[in-house]
Amino acid sequence: MTDASTGAAMRAVVFTGGGDWGLETVPQPVARHGEALLRVLRVGVCGTDEHLLHGGFIARFPLVPGHEIVAEVVGYGPGTTGPDVGTRVVVDPTIFCGNCSACKRGRPGYCTDFGSLGCDRAGGFAEYLTAGVEKLFPIGDLAPEVAVLTEPTACAMHGVDVLALEPAADVLVFGAGPTGLILAQLLRVAGAARVTVAAPTASKLEVARAHGAAHTVLMDRANAGAAEAQLREIAPEGFDAVVEATGSVSVLELAVRMTRTGGTVLVYGLAQEAAIAAIRPYEIFSRELTIRGSFAQANCIGRALFALQSGSVRTEGLVTAEVGLDDFGAALENLHDSAQIKSVFTPA
Ligand SMILES: [Zn+2]
Ligand SMILES: [Zn+2]
Fold this sequence. Notes:
Number of helices: 11
Radius of gyration: 21 Å
CATH architecture of the largest domain: Alpha-Beta Complex
Low-confidence stretches: none
Number of strands: 17
Largest sheet: 7 strands, mixed
CATH superfamily of the largest domain: Medium-chain alcohol dehydrogenases, catalytic domain
Strand content: 25-35%
Bound molecules: zinc ion
Distance between the termini: 29 Å
CATH class of the largest domain: Alpha Beta
Shape: globular
């Protein structure tokens, strides 16, 4: 390597496997042909980061995590051009092989060699990163603290695409984490006449109501039956579509029961890989239920950014903590604090 920037160092959060991580000084990445060098502005901390820490999903160690990235263009690799230096961008973290049968059928979301910045290669919990120029989305005058929710909004957008609602649908969302709160808003944009949100934390339900949820139901995880009675009062015949955005098996079982005959259940939450739910095949058969899944996103970043720019998805109240390189541990702890919604990393 003879590149002029070789030798520069930066600080980064590094996951080393087995649940271990540290703050390290590592070489600053060098943009290759087709890539931009980016200075990190904001990166969202997400439950996926916790799964990666413990070796789940597609983790490859040592790993600089962070896949919900807002950054500023610093420069480009040899023979590469893109948005002006200084432009603020959202980075689409997904990487598709372009060569498997799914990619060749135009369904990159099913790529068998799916990769992602911050999951199997260096991401944004650092001072700098590199990304392909085709993955940069300029944010214009959108504030970085709002733009940082673009990637979760893109994943929710994909979920809404998969759900393919009928106009004026009556929809129930289980979960009021960042994605539940974004999904509840996007479902309105996608045609839901009424959205109900059920979750175990009152403060999060307040945020859901502030962003347009018609009804909210406080759920006690230990007493799902009580929530079922309340939900039946709202929709005696069940909801046209029910979104499970918690990853909990018992909630998925309730989601099936709360779906109207002929309706659809969307499995959005990340359950334990080995978890098994008790669902009666007879019920799916006799009530003609549809069960769909939604995984990550492909090519949804542009629309997600527009949803934020246009104000159809609002982010007030979603970011509950800001953490820097020196207190990144707090961000991991916040993932287990039910009062927290979204922590955002800034390197400074
Ligand atoms: Zn995420
Ligand atoms: Zn592929």
